[in-house]
Amino acid sequence: MMSVAAARQRCDYRLVNRSHFGDTIRMPQSLSSAGLLTALAASLISAGWPATSTLSAAEPPAKPVLLYSRCYNAEGETRYLPDGTFKEVLTRLREHFTVRVHSQPLTPAVLADVDLLLIANPSDQAVAGHPRPHHISPGDVTTLTRYVERGGGLILMGNQENHNLEVEDVNRLLSHFGLQFTNLYTDAKQLVLPKSTPMVGGLRWAYYTGNLVRVLPQHPAHPRALIANDLAQKPLKGSRDEDGILLGVAEPGRGHVAVVTDSGWVTDDALSGKGIGGVAIQEQDNWEIFLRLARWTAGSHAANGH
To answer: Per the count of CB atoms within 10 A, which of 22, 26, 228, 294 is most buried?
Structure first.
């Protein structure tokens, strides 16, 4: 801890960064430690510093709010639970976002202060012994479209077949952003992304199987591929390798949308390199890719030169 004498010595200084202030501030030799900051503040004000200046550290800026919504996941669904296979990614996200997790209906009030909405593998069918899951309704389409167009961010992640993925109603929402899920699949592979790729160029994506995204041409939301499948880089297991988009983005209104064709790529086992389904891709940058994508959709960065 600094002594009072040392503190006095450090407070005896000249305001070198303000050329129109030439006075040297000297603290009284009899100053007690209790009055040191008060006297320093008074001296600064008398030398011309604004009276509103504070000597305490500035409050850190508020973190953007990320909502991981389970609204469209069936009750009893064990995939991508916040305290299960998504525990690690949500823990890491808390360093950068205020993270919320719930299954409440996505009303305008719920979304009012949300910067980024994350939806993973919306369910098609009920889990045995549980009610039918809520699908994206026409009212939800209106609410979510308005949320994005007014500046909200959305990451929606699909999956491969046999993962209870609902597509038809999801595509009604995605059509407002010029994007669509398809029933064409690419098996797990490591994709080294070209350095020219906006936002994520040069990174390595451990992709664990999913459906392709189709872009609707001449759509006002400016949909486009962020990551397209590279047929020169072969699947590590399986033979499916479709030409098309694995991660598409759009910018409707003031908002940002990212549609990813795999939900497993940010699970605990994917991030650790342990792998999924008998495929382990240890050399990968999945967390960095997801973080950059989350920041962009939340409005922190631009994905291209626009």
So the answer is: 294
